[in-house]
Write a structure and sequence with these properties.
homotetramer; mainly alpha; Arc Repressor Mutant, subunit A; Tetracycline Repressor, domain 2; 67% helix; DNA-binding
Chain lengths: 210, 210, 210, 210
Amino acid sequence: MEKMSTEKRSEILDAAIKLFSEKGFERTTVDEIASKANVGKGTIYLYFENKEHIFLTIIEEGMSQLRRFFQQMSKEENFLSLLRELIFSYLKFAEDNREIYRLFLKERLAMRLFDEDTLGRRFMEMHHELHQFMTEFMQRGMDEGALRPADPGYLGMALNGIISHTVFYWLFTNEQQPLTGLTDALYRLFLTGAANDFNLNISGGVRDVS
Amino acid sequence: MEKMSTEKRSEILDAAIKLFSEKGFERTTVDEIASKANVGKGTIYLYFENKEHIFLTIIEEGMSQLRRFFQQMSKEENFLSLLRELIFSYLKFAEDNREIYRLFLKERLAMRLFDEDTLGRRFMEMHHELHQFMTEFMQRGMDEGALRPADPGYLGMALNGIISHTVFYWLFTNEQQPLTGLTDALYRLFLTGAANDFNLNISGGVRDVS
Amino acid sequence: MEKMSTEKRSEILDAAIKLFSEKGFERTTVDEIASKANVGKGTIYLYFENKEHIFLTIIEEGMSQLRRFFQQMSKEENFLSLLRELIFSYLKFAEDNREIYRLFLKERLAMRLFDEDTLGRRFMEMHHELHQFMTEFMQRGMDEGALRPADPGYLGMALNGIISHTVFYWLFTNEQQPLTGLTDALYRLFLTGAANDFNLNISGGVRDVS
Amino acid sequence: MEKMSTEKRSEILDAAIKLFSEKGFERTTVDEIASKANVGKGTIYLYFENKEHIFLTIIEEGMSQLRRFFQQMSKEENFLSLLRELIFSYLKFAEDNREIYRLFLKERLAMRLFDEDTLGRRFMEMHHELHQFMTEFMQRGMDEGALRPADPGYLGMALNGIISHTVFYWLFTNEQQPLTGLTDALYRLFLTGAANDFNLNISGGVRDVS
DNA sequence: GATGAATGAGCTTTCATTCAT
DNA sequence: CATGAATGAAAGCTCATTCAT
């Protein structure tokens, strides 16, 4: 009858993910989490140091899951294949972890300047890690000659922006179609842009990011 | 006499913008705003109904400023010129209103599911308005043949994503170079993508968003 | 154009009487008084030390008016005539000063244990004075043989109770008939009771207050 | 377990009764209640929705106690016996519930015009209920021929006034003698009045309340 | 004298955290 | 292990009072 402790832990996490992603970290009370997880309020403090650590745990576990996704991308392939896989993995992650991803989006910026406390610092580190990964990936694309020379930081951000805003739109229009179905569209958009072919010469005069 | 009250009002707003954009709405206390604005706590309630209305005022004033930016774009020009102008205006706004823009980014998602209260509703309306504008703009681009056929909602989001993440990167790396200097780079990226020209035929098989 | 200071003073008092009697002392704000009196908030502090003193002034002025009413009762007459006059004066006062009387009723007990501050002490003194007057009057009635021997304090209270509750009923049923029209009824009730005559012998066994 | 919570609840109520009856509802702070009840401030909000509900609870519980007192009066007896019992019950209640009764007296009028909120409305309903009871009782006395014809509303008020002012006097002179010892005196006073017998013909000319 | 903008002490209420059971 | 009653620090907000104009 008694649930195993691991079960309780993940019930707490599930409840917290839902509530945090719906109402935000601040507006969610520990009482609500306990009640949604069908657990006593005190029990939460057996599994987590405090409310912030519940949040941190969610983020860390989500992050390592995302990391695993990325690491599964085989190393030998050429850049363009990897890029498509990256986009696919990203979308797949968001599709499989709607709530966690929504949580990522929502709290992404809310933590800045809390560099003193552990929570804010870890959260920032994670974002930095993601950005680092993107930047290096873009650099590799340029090195391989697949991408035009440009600031890889901005380019990584731009890809990140395209993908995450697409997910954002998908999340809040609650599209039923699978998010991963957009992989190729985003892949093509990032590589070749939105313009019709005959426009390409028109924009010929545009300079690269210096 | 009248002057003084306007002064206090904007001092309060300035302090609130800074604090909200740094720490978020929830984590900022009225005491902090008062203290940063060099104003008594009670004074704040002379100028604003409550804490939420300070936030609302900031957002609304910022929004109408952004709206004015967009409206200044001349109506007669062709789509591509307007697109460049749109990107420029967006970047200019973010450059001129760093704090407000940061606030926009930070609280964008934190308000969802608070559709009941005025604050959340107004905030959502504004985002919707912005998105609506983007979508219609993309539709026009397609109608004029400047853009490849695609879901204009996703396309608007993608442009929005490219720009806002670029601003994000700029904001938190605190680049000294003017943000508007990135106009052409983003313009080109959105239209022609990141790929080197010789890759274009490689990605030929990619299908459009259906 | 400028009102004479005495006028302002009484406008403030009038506004305060209305508000205090409607909402009670605590629930009435100085802002409300100022606004109802068409006077600046600061002006109130030119005429009164603080909010409590407005209240005190109202009570004191009402009290001295009541005192004057009582003093007008001619001294030579016999007790029973004076009693009728007392009841009449009391009712007349309440009729002419509805609001002030309501204020009396409302705040009568709210002040106890505030013996330290001036306001509570003065208020209590006034009640004591009224009670003292009643007690002495009852004593005189007994001395003259008009009243049965009894504790004059209780008897004074009883008369006070009969009258004030009658006024209470009248105030809140908003009777249009003049309150003073009840003089004789109360006079008779106090002297001969509510019983039908044939009941008198039934209650013969009742002992007096010892 | 259950016992403890009931204990805390009544400790809070006891503290609140004392403080409200001494200082009034408005002037009593939640901190004071908590401190007098030897309870944390937050604990109060475990047992009561807010400060108003503490008050409301006290009044309702007191009222239902008073109601029970009245209901214990046997129904078969004649009016005069019941009248004596009513007076006795009233005095007994006040004697046994000094503080609650004092609270009744103090806040009786302070709530008027707050008919909108629950607190004021409930309080007014209770007073109305008591008055209704008195009025019907007086009517019955007249129907049975025990009382002289008169407006039963005023008559009920008068009896109420006699009793409550007597309790008032007793409360604030802190008499040690039992309040119920005054039953017969009040009974006689209400029925036969305060006059010496030989005065009765003098007051013969007095008209009844029409 | 007259004003009302400015103030901050003090209020009610919330909620993360503790700890006895 | 599990609980939820108990707590008090901290929040948003009110309003009597002051004072520069």
